[in-house]
Design brief:
This protein is of the alpha/beta class. It has helices at residues 7-17, 21-29, 49-55, 59-62, 67-70, 76-82, 123-150, 165-177, 194-203, 222-230, 248-251, 270-279, 305-311, 316-322, 336-353, 363-371, 377-390, 404-407, 442-460, 465-472, 476-485, and strands at 34-39, 44-47, 86-93, 96-107, 110-119, 184-187, 212-216, 231-232, 245-246, 256-260, 281-283, 290-292, 296-301, 325-328, 360-361, 396-397. The chain is built from 21 helices and 16 strands.
Length: 490
């Protein structure tokens, strides 16, 4: 294209660039954008006057230099090696974001030169383009991170342990739900494993290769919940991300959205949720574009929605829209034979994680675990086992190794939802156990057990007094009284 002044370079490149030298020189020098040409080693043999003016360099002195000596962050030599064009790359040059094209020039499949075009003549326009590209890159990164998290479902039906009659029946109902896309409402006490069923249904359905999007309606402040669910556009509110943010319904397209703790959904949000369920379309906050999303909805709650409807705190129309496939997860105390099954499986997993091999549970400890009423359900069982392993001496869990409120608790009747049968074939929901004899007075044992139960409930609920009181089955005011009685920090 151009014959430079440097004779050594001229001799090397003249065969290819000899023709129409003057024409190319005049044409490139008339460009307002920057142009630079290097040979296959990255040596500069042409740079136009606009680029030199932008760089504040003497053009004649740049000939024969390596491109990195002339332009900061130059990649012309890299393109020469790879032979791959770089189109619309953003490059910072002298503190200005520029848009750069780097095109390899080939002959017989071999790179003999690299042509570079730098767009900087209208800095404002380039700045706008750069900001737009930055925003797009940010969005792509955000989507990638979100989708990695969304697809990280861990549980299948094989993950759900339980041989009791209630659990077998429940798993069959959940398995049927994988064959359709109707909404599912999973109810059950806190810690029973409602999300396991939600993930298992997703993994068992045709949507398993698409996102499983989870949102806890109780964990997000009321004023942020709408933006989390529906997303927002740029400038929707103070502190909004520059490029906006997609909402959970948008991210769940073709997959499953799991609304955990749906009973805690603010009343004013419920009509909006109902509309999305019925129309499968919505707008981002601050946006006007109608977004369509094909999602399957699964909701879960530990609250009694029927009571809430009577109280006017949960919409009847939303309830009937959600409650197409109802699944009720039984509490652990009603899964008698499953308690020890779960304890053994969890112990194996937890002991392996703690690098403690061959840990077993003694018969007395098994009796204590089986007869405890487990107000915190499986989550409490995990906590008890972790707590026991953390201070265990030896390889066998004895009754005395369990938390005080369990090992000093008199045996209670074992409620078993799988209906253990006696010799006459009748259901035996409660089995009388021999009560432990203890040298301490009954009142002392009662107080210690009560104190330990309060501590345990607060631990399991992250010191949330309302949830702890609900777990214990008492009013929050009563919980405060007991905390004061046992000198626990309020």
């Amino acid at each position: 294209m151009i014959i430079p002044q440097d004779t050594s370079i001229t001799q090397r490149e003249t065969p290819f660039f000899k023709e129409d030298v003057a024409l190319y020189h005049d044409m490139f020098d008339s460009f307002k954008n920057g142009i630079i040409i290097t040979d296959a080693e990255g040596i500069v043999f042409y740079i136009n006057s606009s680029y030199c003016k932008f760089l504040d360099l003497d053009r004649d002195k740049q000939m024969g230099k390596h491109c990195q000596e002339v332009v900061e962050n130059s990649r012309m030599h890299i393109v020469a090696k790879t032979g791959k064009a770089e189109v619309n790359h953003i490059q910072d040059i002298k503190g200005v974001k520029t848009v750069v094209q780097r095109i390899p020039v080939k002959r017989d499949g071999k790179v003999i030169a690299v042509f570079g075009l730098v767009m900087f003549s209208d800095v404002r326009e380039v700045g706008k383009l750069a900001r737009k590209i930055d925003s797009l890159e940010y969005k792509v990164k955000l989507y990638e991170e979100e989708l990695l998290n969304l697809r990280a479902t861990r549980y299948t039906f094989e993950s759900i342990l339980g041989e009791s009659e209630g659990m077998r029946s429940l798993k069959m109902e959940a398995l049927r739900a994988t064959a359709n896309t109707y909404p599912v409402l999973i109810t059950g006490e806190s810690g029973t494993g409602k999300e396991l069923f939600a993930q298992a249904i997703h993994q068992g359905s045709d949507r398993k290769i698409y996102p499983f999007v989870r949102i806890n309606c109780a964990a997000i402040p009321k004023d942020l919940l709408e933006s989390e669910l529906f997303g927002y556009d740029k400038g929707a509110f103070t502190g909004a991300r520059p490029g906006g943010k997609p909402g959970k319904f948008e991210l769940a397209h073709r997959g499953t959205i799991f609304l955990d703790e749906i009973g805690d959904m603010p009343l004013e949000m419920q009509p909006k949720i109902l509309r999305v369920l019925e129309e499968k379309e919505f707008e981002r906050i601050g946006g006007s574009k109608l977004i369509t999303s094909d999602f399957r909805l699964i909701a879960a709650t530990n609250r009694h929605l029927e009571d809430m409807m009577e109280e006017g705190t949960f919409r009847t129309d939303l309830f009937y829209r959600l409650n197409v496939i109802p699944l009720s997860v039984p509490p652990l105390r009603e899964r008698g034979s499953d308690i020890l099954l779960l304890a053994e499986a969890l112990l194996k997993k937890l002991s392996e994680e703690a690098d403690m091999q061959g840990i077993r549970i003694s018969q007395h400890a098994r009796n204590a675990l089986a007869s405890y009423h487990w107000p915190g359900n499986v989550r409490e069982l995990v906590n008890v086992l972790e707590r026991t392993l953390s201070r265990l001496d030896g390889d066998t869990i004895q009754r005395s190794d369990l938390p005080f409120y369990i090992h000093n608790r008199p045996h209670k009747a074992l409620r078993d939802g799988d209906a253990q049968l006696n010799t006459n074939g009748t259901k035996q929901r409660e089995m009388d156990k021999n009560r432990d004899r203890n040298v301490q007075g009954l009142r002392s044992i009662q107080m210690e057990s009560e104190k330990e139960a309060v501590i345990q409930a607060l631990d399991l609920c992250g010191n949330n007094k309302s949830k702890a009181a609900k777990m214990l089955g008492i009013h929050r005011t009563m919980l405060y009284r007991k905390m004061k009685k046992y000198h626990l920090e309020l």
